[in-house]
Amino acid sequence: MNKFKSKRKIKLKFRYFVYVIIVFLLYELFIYVSTNFKIVKTNEQFISNILSDSNYHLAYNKNYNNIFNHLITNLIDVNNPVEILKNQNENKITISQDLMFSSYEDSKTIYIYNTHDLEEYDNSILKNYNITANVRMASILLSKRLNEIGLNTIVESKNTSQILVDNNLNDYFVASRDYLIESNKNNDIDLFIDLHSDDVSRELTTTQIGEKKYAKVIFSVGRKNKNYMNNYNIVEILNRKIKEKYPDLTRGIILDDNNTYNQDISNNMILINIGGYQNTIDEVLNTIELISPLIKETLYEETESS
Fold first, then answer.
1. Residues 6+ apart with CB under 8 A from 50
2. How far apart are CA 278 and CA 273, in angstroms?
3. Is 261 left (phi over 0), alpha (psi -120 to 50) or beta?
4. Cβ within 8 Å of residue 123, ≥6 positions away
5. How many alpha carbons lie under 13 Å from residue 94 in its C-beta half-sphere?
6. CA-to-CA distance for 228 and 193, rounded, in angstroms?
7. What are the residue ranges spanned by the domains of the chain?
8. What DSSP string describes 137-196?
9. How many CB atoms lie within 10 A of CB 301?
10. The pLDDT value given to residue 194
């Protein structure tokens, strides 16, 4: 009799266990289907969506951790590896013309470029969807935010890394120099921004303000340029404004005696690292949202004082 009761309890426990597994799988299937309706698989669509919702990246996080996503990813290569290799020199990012330039009459013009255009952010989740969160994406996000507050922006479309290879160069700053000189001649540019990602740990590049996490910024000024103080003054104003409003958001200014960073080309050129390789793109965007108005303030303040 006791053996019968014991067997019955085991069967009931097993049945409950099966029910739990079924419910769990149905839930995972629901999450997988619902998140796939939201998820896009091109950088350009991703940029548009993350601009409208800075937490858009969380949908990828939920889908990435889903059991069905792992199963399908392991069984079926949803991305074409040949196409990925073909696009490697383009950093797997397509920049449409409307993202390249926005014009406002009687407004300042900012030229944004990436000397180290292959620098990436934390891409562990997004890579499964053929999305590359890198400094070029950050440049477009910065451009769009600056456009929204009434500034003209130009985002450089040339790949410095490809210029480096094509011309057998070994210095990224040499590779970017020609298109910077050309742009400085052919455009009335009020500010050059060379946007980078740092290679230090997340602990150093991340801060929390309120309920959001942000990628910290740090500036570099090349003192090998005899007129470096002109560029330093702009950086000092911007860094001070950031520090006054968001003290933990900036890591300060680095003065480098051994480099120019091409800052001899213009008196209005800054090099900024936004976050590091362990930051997510939404943390970078959070920072961009805070510093964009301060960049505008700095630009007009510096113009009035000169």
1. 56, 57, 141, 281, 282, 285
2. 13
3. left
4. 131, 132, 133, 134
5. 12
6. 15
7. 90-305
8. HHHHHHHHHHHHTT-EEEE--S-HHHHHHHTT-S-HHHHHHHHHHHHHHHS--SEEEEEE
9. 14
10. 98
pLDDT, tens digit, 9 for 90 and up, residues 168-182? 999 999 999 999 999
pLDDT attached to residue 44:
76
Tell me if the domain spanning 90-305 has CATH number 3.20.20.140: no
Residue type, 97: Q
In the block, which residue shows the tokens 């000189």? 181
pLDDT confidence of residue 26: 65
Supply the pTM of this predicted model. Answer: 0.76
CA distance 143 to 55: 19
109-151: per-residue pLDDT in tens? Answer: 999 999 999 999 998 877 777 788 999 999 999 999 999 999 9
* Secondary structure of 182-198 in HEC code, one letter for each residue: HHHHHCCCCEEEEEEEE
pLDDT digit string, tens, across residues 184-228: 887 789 999 999 999 999 999 999 999 999 999 999 999 999 889
Cβ count near 163 (within 10 Å)? 18
Cα-based torsion angle of the residue sequence 59, 208, 200, 244 in order, rounded to the nearest 10 degrees: 130
Phi-psi region of 210 (alpha: psi -120 to 50; beta: other; left: phi over 0): left
Read off the amino acid at residue 154. I
Between CA 217 and CA 253 the distance in angstroms is 9
